[in-house]
Amino acid sequence: MKQNFIKFSWILMLAVIVVLSACSEEQGPSPLENNTTPPGIVENVVVENLPGKVKLEYTLPSDKDLLYVVARYTLENGTPMEVKASYYQNSMVLEGFTGLSEEEVEIYAVNRSETESAPVTVTVAPLEAPIFDIFRSLETNADFGGVRINALNPTEEDIAVLVMQKNVQGDWEPLATSIYTSVDTISRSIRGYDPVPQDFAFVVRDRWLNTTDTLFTEITPIFEMLMPREEMLPVTLPNDAELIASHTEVRDLFNGGTLEWFDSYFTSRTIDVGNHLVTFDIGKQTKLSRLHIWNFSEPIGGQRLYYYLGAMRKFRIWGANELNDGNLEDGTWTLMGEYEITKPSGLPYGQEDNNDLIAAQDGADYEIDIEKPAVRFLRIECQLNWAGGQYMAVSEVQVYGNPNL
Which residues form the signal peptide (predicted)? Predict the structure, then answer.
């Protein structure tokens, strides 16, 4: 009986400890001190209005236990905002405004006991947010299989260009192919459409969910087809690269294989300077839209490395309608595009992660400017591979375009 009483006492004590511990955790960390006297207010507030944001400079109160300054305001879309700056600073930047109206900001000094001062209220008038200039620069045009979207984002804002079409209920709905970017020059094609009139709507949105007006347009995509690989033929010009071995040939570029070495094309590693060019006939004169290229992936240590050895890093595509001795400077060949492949992870050479795998395993599109002439013969020139040389290792090339233009 005594043993049972002792056991029950221990259980009860543990339960009390657990409850007290839980209560302590729910209350969160305590203030550093226990000073309920409000600190002095910030003074001499100077407002600098900027595009979509404001910079505040101020004089801090002299309280020795000052911890930080906090500014609270509400965006035009109703989102409450709070920005803090430590007592080591005398300025802060408030973001997220559209710049279409004046707004009030309340500024508080806060001490180590989390006691706030009386508020200081200032009125700010931010300049127009960058999304509106981006929207004004927006251009949409028919492209192969879809629509081409161009816009300028000189301050490299994190924005979305929402591409919308009507759903079955007749409501405008953003597409999964909408553009999310922070690059300074936006040029993107949304593909997969039949060459019939299509209604589109476009909106620019920032990361605070501010939006511009809507651009409505009707676009008829240009017909695009995959050029049949059965009609593509290898061509050998005098300055084409020497092949790595007898098991590889130009035809391997368009034989349908995208993974194995015996379905891929390799130029000789023993010739590391000079032209590393490969030439082929696509069957008929065609207005090109893009080349879809799979770089060869080296099987290393039980995984496939796509940014390794002869996989192309920088390359050019050339086009012509007649053949010469291979000279690229006599006007026979037109430069169709220059390209550089980037590794998403940024990891050192020989190291790749899942993001790299996802970006490379299905190949990638390399677009041809719609202003380039229709051509029949193509050349791929490797300028730099991932090993730092010029030899190339390519698994497959698909050619898209319109042979009727």
Answer: 1-24
C-alpha 85/C-alpha 64 separation (Å) is 16
What are the beta bridge partners of residue 219? 198
Sheet holding 53-59, edge to edge: 43-50, 53-59, 91-95
What is the CB neighbour count within 10 angstroms for residue 106?
Answer: 13
Residue 27: CB atoms within 10 Å: 8
Q: Are strands 334-340 and 312-320 parallel, antiparallel or unpaired?
A: antiparallel
Statement: residue 25 has pLDDT above 80: no
The CATH superfamily of 130-222 is: Immunoglobulins (2.60.40.10)
Task: Judge whether 296 and 244 are in contact, CB under 8 Å.
Answer: no
Percent of the chain with pLDDT over 70: 90
199-209 pLDDT, tens digit each? 999 999 999 99
Q: Are 336 and 328 in contact (CB under 8 A)?
A: no
> Residue 186 burial by CB count (10 A; 0-12/13-18/19+): exposed, middle or buried?
buried
Quick one: DSSP state of residue 100? S
What are the structure tokens assigned to 177, written together? 């192919």
Q: Please write the tens of the pLDDT for every residue from 118-134.
A: 999 999 999 999 999 99
CA 287 to chain centre: 28
Count how many residues are written for the chain.
Answer: 405
CA distance 181 to 154: 12
CA angle 17, 21, 24 (to 5 degrees): 140
CATH fold of 43-124, please? Immunoglobulin-like (2.60.40)
Which H or E run contains 357? Answer: helix 354-360
| Token pair listed for 391 | 């030899």
> Residue 80 CA to chain centroid, in angstroms?
28
For the chain, the structural domain boundaries read 43-124, 130-222, 226-402
Q: Do domains 130-222 and 226-402 have the same CATH topology?
A: no
* Superfamily, domain 226-402: Galactose-binding domain-like (2.60.120.260)
